[in-house]
Amino acid sequence: MNANGGQERRGFHEHVDANHARILAVDDDADILYTIRAICEAAGWQMDGASDGAEALRLLRQRRNYDLVLLDYHMPRMDGLTLLGFVREEFPHLPVLVLTVDEDQATADAFLDAGATDFALKPIKAPDLIARIRLHLRLAAAEQQLERRPHEELPKGIQRQTLDAILDALRGAEDFVTQQDLAEITGFAYQTVCRYVAHLEDEGLVDVQFNYGQLGRPKKLVRWRDKRK
């Protein structure tokens, strides 16, 4: 345990098990919590619910055995962004998925800067939520196995395991792909992919093209830039 009472590097559980995980869901809507509980039970996970940020922090500090947090954005007294800040201070490596109806990139960037792992959009769809939770439980387990790897400093809002997954998808693509394609390949939310693609652009690791169709905004196409060429 660290000096602030937070979790150590390897997380709450010594080994994350994607099939027997404990989830903390935070939402002020009782119906949403009921739905998430039913989804978690169907997937074989245990779920605790909290209706506000203060209750969520109490459970996190008291039980210290959660594998993932589902966090609502809009809540009274303490919104999801504020709660996320407290969670990251004490539990820096706990995966946190934000439940939100807001799809704008500015909101996504604010949460990613605060330490969000990914997003799940409302209204909740069981297959999507289950797949997204399983993905991040697997990534958390992989992170534990690689915990002895030398630390590499990354920009704020960029996490190594997510970046590696997106890089693997780009390296496996034969040609240019859209950011939506990457979201479908990796299982991450579209907003998360956009943030990481922007980082890869800044690092000069991808080539970018734009497809100007007849309707709507042009689609950004990206391709891994092989430095050996």
Account of the protein in words:
With 229 residues, this protein is an alpha/beta fold. It folds into two domains: 22-145, Rossmann fold (3-Layer(aba) Sandwich), CATH 3.40.50; 160-224, Winged helix-like DNA-binding domain superfamily/Winged helix DNA-binding domain (Arc Repressor Mutant, subunit A), CATH 1.10.10.10. The protein has eight helices and eight strands; from the N terminus they run E-H-E-H-E-H-E-H-E-H-H-E-H-H-E-E. The strands form two sheets. Strands 2-1-3-4-5 form a five-stranded parallel sheet, sandwiched between helices. Strands 6-8-7 form a three-stranded antiparallel sheet. Residues 1-13 have low confidence and may be disordered.
Report a brief summary of the structure:
The chain is of the alpha/beta class and 229 residues long. The protein has eight helices and eight strands, in the order βαβαβαβαβααβααββ. The strands form two sheets. The chain has a five-stranded parallel beta sheet with strand order 2-1-3-4-5, with helices on both faces.
Topology, pairings included?
Layout: E1 22-26, H1 30-43, E2 46-50, H2 53-63, E3 68-72, H3 80-90, E4 96-100, H4 105-114, E5 118-121, H5 126-145, H6 160-172, E6 177-178, H7 179-186, H8 190-202, E7 206-211, E8 219-224
Parallel strand pairs: 1-2, 1-3, 3-4, 4-5
Antiparallel strand pairs: 6-8, 7-8
Helix pairs in contact: 2-3, 4-8, 7-8
Task: Write out key terms for the chains shown.
Arc Repressor Mutant, subunit A, single chain, 229 residues, globular, 3-stranded antiparallel β-sheet, 5-stranded parallel β-sheet, 8 helices, alpha/beta, disordered N terminus, Rossmann fold, 8 strands
